[in-house]
């Protein structure tokens, strides 16, 4: 697809504007529709009135979606949604330390008004020793690990942020069990340790355990986390310096000299965008001006200044928390953090992008952790965290004016190369600005998908880039299963084709998951302004085909005085093997050839008896039952094994021309030809194709050819008898179709707009036109001096 040149200058293997097609195997083929899921607000308690759709992520084996601060999940092999947390979910969470550790309960719902929910998957920690500064007054002296004090590791999970609430952590156990809790903050983080002082250790159960003298007061409910995975919950209040603690041990047993921490050595600040890179979890501050980072090797343990005794420098987060060691990149608020395929972190903002690199030179570290250097990349950046994608070594992102790409390795080597990636389709971005609300990008099945705002009538479309051929191939409209196309072809000759799907709304974010069977499933979350609850969609997941549209190359003679008059268009299709529309005759006496109903007059209403129609049952599109929303297109042909053909009619041909015939899933109108049909005879086709002339960039009206529609016959494979070894399937894999025009417009250039739906693949297009020389000759005028 190339929209960057005049359509007369397209190459022979290029085409103009195209919707819902793919072109990887040297033929144009239709994509499948999406499946919309009804999530129902009662499931998580989210708002039923225009809910705020906030995010989606896949972490094997679940898709997690976020709406109104609520989290739902579905298995990769199931269509059923369940809750992770709701508007009223509570858990036991650490509270502010007061004379030790106390606990309390609270809700973990995130903000219902946050524009996005941000997620990042982190592994367990690999640096599990206590740390301290080397100097009491010199941060540059570095830090050191105390290898005599092993501390509990931080766990693997999904960190969930909204920029306002305390972040949550989702954990997935080996058996698939999902748990969630609120992550700890600065107040809960401490370096206090408790060490067992009993050589025999303790099994799980209720005990009074012997310990070395405790350094602080430990109150009832305090949970001591031990290195080996044991959790000891205290059953009474304990003064500092005690050597025995009563409580209950769960999880794993504890050994004779095992180290434990009251609570967890865990601290994740409130923020927005996140990226795990180089052993660190990076978090953008809520206002987007600072970059927080964890301790290297401990993604849930954020860096704070420590004394030479390993203690906080101050009990208040504003003084001793992440702000003390935060890194600033620019005054432009951060919109995107991504790990690049170098040792650099990509930090993007609306008006600038940088590569941030850790500096681990010992002289430049602070508290033993690296400082950072930054390099300016270019004066633009991703509009949001979801608008960035990797492209086989390159990276691409949606900025405010289109799609841009760059090569991280070349940037690291100071070879500047960032390009306007969307140049071949740049016309669709004229006079529109991507505002970051419904823009996202992802890679699926070898294609890079960019959901963007365009200046086309559909507004929000998915730009499809084939990573194998390195070409843009389509703009996808993401039509939904069980919805159809409405056509109007009235007596004025006006032709209109548009999507009747009311659920096709802008996409907030997308996620890809691989099923147990190995299928790549692409899910999206969309806006839900009409409160229909159909905001989760399985893109390309239906068995039904979406309506494709292709504008061919425009043809001209190259001579201004010679015009063209189209005569015919010939199309070649490959492999029409898959049933598109099908139904069975439901009438004991069958039907002879003829017109049904015999007179399509103004008296024919939706209440008319079925005796005027052909009655049918088992009416399907693919394997989906046909309803009033996805009936076939006017003039589609269905084929019977008897040789009979039925040209399906959606609109009247006489009486009030263009009046709906009110077909349904059980009664159809049309012209039955060639032979009669019997009860239970099956009519079917492989799809349909419609063609419209476009002369001098204007689509011709009905009086000059208008729109011509045909059904594509289904080719059924089989073995020819007698069978001779080796057995071969003797099947014609091609279908030809010709459209002829007796009366057509003439003009300087001619192209065709092709509508296609079904399994056949369009491989060749041939135009036959006649040259027409203008009657008046060209006149040259000369003026003398």
Describe the fold and architecture.
With 785 residues, the protein is mostly beta strands. Among the domains are: 192-262, Thrombin, subunit H (Beta Barrel), CATH 2.40.10; 555-773, no CATH class. Helix content is 1%, strand content 42%. The chain is built from two helices and 61 strands. Strands 1, 45, 46, 56, 57, 58 and 60 form a seven-stranded antiparallel β-sheet that branches. It has a six-stranded antiparallel β-sheet with strand order 17-22-19-20-21-18, with no helix packed on it. A hairpin with a 2-residue loop joins strand 32 and strand 33. The longest helix has 5 residues, at 408-412.
Tell me what portion of residues adopts beta-strand conformation.
35-45%
**Terminal-residue CA separation:** 51 Å
Main beta-sheet annotation: 7 strands, antiparallel
Oligomer: single chain
Runs in which pLDDT lies below 50 for 5 or more consecutive residues are 95-103, 412-417, 484-503, 600-608, 727-731
Residue share in helices?
Answer: under 10%
Structural class computed from helices and strand pairing: mainly beta
Task: Let me know the average pLDDT.
Answer: 81
How many distinct beta strands?
61
Rg, Å, rounded: 34 Å
Count up the helices: 2
Overall body shape = elongated
């Amino acid at each position: 697809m190339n929209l960057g040149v005049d359509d007369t200058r397209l190459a022979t293997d290029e085409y103009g504007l195209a919707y819902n097609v793919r072109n990887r195997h040297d033929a144009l083929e239709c994509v499948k529709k999406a499946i919309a899921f009804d999530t129902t607000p009662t499931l998580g308690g989210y708002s039923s009135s225009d809910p705020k759709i906030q995010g989606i992520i896949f972490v094997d084996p679940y898709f997690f979606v976020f709406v109104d601060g609520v989290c739902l999940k579905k298995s990769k092999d199931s269509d059923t949604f369940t809750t992770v947390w709701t508007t009223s979910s509570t858990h036991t969470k650490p509270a502010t330390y007061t004379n030790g550790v106390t606990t309390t309960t609270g809700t973990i719902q995130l903000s219902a008004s946050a524009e996005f929910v941000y997620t990042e998957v982190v592994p367990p920690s690999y640096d599990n020793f206590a740390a301290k500064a080397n100097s009491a007054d010199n941060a540059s002296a570095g830090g050191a690990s105390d290898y005599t004090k092993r501390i509990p590791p931080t766990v693997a999970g999904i960190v969930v942020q909204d920029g306002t609430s305390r972040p949550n952590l989702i954990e997935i156990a080996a058996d698939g069990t999902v748990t969630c809790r609120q992550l700890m903050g600065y107040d809960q983080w401490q370096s206090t340790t408790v060490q067992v002082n009993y050589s025999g250790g303790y099994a799980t159960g209720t005990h009074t355990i012997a310990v070395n003298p405790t350094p602080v007061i430990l109150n009832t409910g305090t949970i001591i986390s031990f290195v080996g995975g044991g959790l000891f919950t205290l059953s009474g209040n304990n003064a500092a310096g005690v050597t025995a603690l009563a409580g209950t041990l769960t999880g794993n047993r504890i050994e004779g000299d095992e180290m434990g921490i009251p609570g967890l050595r865990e601290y994740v600040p409130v923020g927005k965008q996140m990226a795990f890179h180089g052993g660190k979890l990076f978090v953008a501050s809520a206002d987007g001006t600072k970059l927080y980072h964890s301790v290297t090797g401990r993604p849930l343990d954020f860096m704070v200044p420590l004394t030479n005794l390993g203690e906080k420098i101050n009990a208040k987060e504003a003084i001793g928390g992440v702000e003390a060691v935060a890194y600033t990149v620019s005054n432009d608020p951060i919109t995107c953090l991504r790990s690049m395929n170098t040792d650099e972190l990509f930090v993007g903002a609306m008006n600038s992008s940088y590569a941030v690199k850790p500096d681990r030179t010992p002289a430049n570290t602070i508290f033993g952790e690296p400082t950072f250097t930054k390099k300016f990349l270019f004066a633009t950046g991703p509009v949001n965290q979801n608008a960035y994608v990797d492209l086989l070594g390159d990276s691409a992102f949606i900025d405010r004016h289109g799609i841009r790409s760059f090569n991280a390795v070349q940037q690291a080597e100071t070879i500047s190369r960032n390009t306007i990636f969307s140049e071949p389709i740049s016309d669709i971005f004229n006079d529109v600005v991507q505002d970051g609300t419904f823009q996202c990008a992802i890679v699926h099945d070898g294609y890079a998908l960019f959901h963007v705002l365009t200046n086309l009538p559909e507004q929000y479309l998915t730009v499809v880039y084939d990573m194998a051929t390195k070409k843009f191939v389509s703009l996808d409209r993401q039509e939904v299963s069980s919805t159809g196309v409405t056509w109007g072809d009235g007596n004025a000759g006006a032709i209109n084709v548009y999507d009747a799907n009311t659920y096709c709304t802008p996409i907030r974010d997308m996620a890809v998951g691989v099923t147990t069977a190995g299928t790549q499933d692409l899910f999206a979350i969309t806006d839900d302004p009409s409160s229909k609850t159909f905001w989760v969609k399985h893109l390309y997941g239906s068995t039904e085909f979406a309506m494709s549209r292709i504008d061919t190359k425009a043809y001209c003679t190259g001579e201004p005085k010679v015009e063209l008059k189209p005569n015919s268009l010939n199309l070649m299709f490959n492999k029409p093997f898959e049933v598109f529309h099908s139904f069975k005759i439901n009438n004991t006496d069958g039907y002879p050839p003829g017109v049904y109903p015999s007179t399509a007059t103004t008296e024919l209403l939706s209440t008319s008896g079925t005796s005027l129609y052909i009655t049918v049952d088992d009416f399907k599109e693919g394997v989906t039952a046909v309803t009033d929303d996805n009936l076939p297109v006017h003039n589609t042909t269905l084929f019977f094994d008897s040789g009979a053909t039925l040209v399906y009619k959606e609109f009247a041909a006489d009486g009030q021309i263009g009046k709906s015939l009110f077909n349904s899933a059980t009664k159809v109108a049309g012209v039955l030809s060639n032979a009669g049909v019997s009860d239970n005879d099956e009519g079917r086709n492989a799809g349909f194709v419609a063609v419209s002339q476009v002369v001098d960039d204007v689509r011709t009206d009905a009086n000059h050819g208008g729109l011509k529609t045909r059904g594509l016959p289904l080719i059924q494979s089989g073995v020819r008898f007698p069978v001779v070894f080796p057995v071969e399937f003797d099947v014609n894999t091609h279908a030809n179709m010709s459209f002829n025009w007796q009366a057509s417009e003439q003009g300087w250039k001619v192209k065709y707009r092709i509508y296609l739906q079904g399994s056949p693949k369009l491989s060749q297009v041939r135009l036959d036109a006649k040259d027409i020389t203008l009657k008046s000759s060209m006149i040259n005028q000369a003026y003398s001096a």
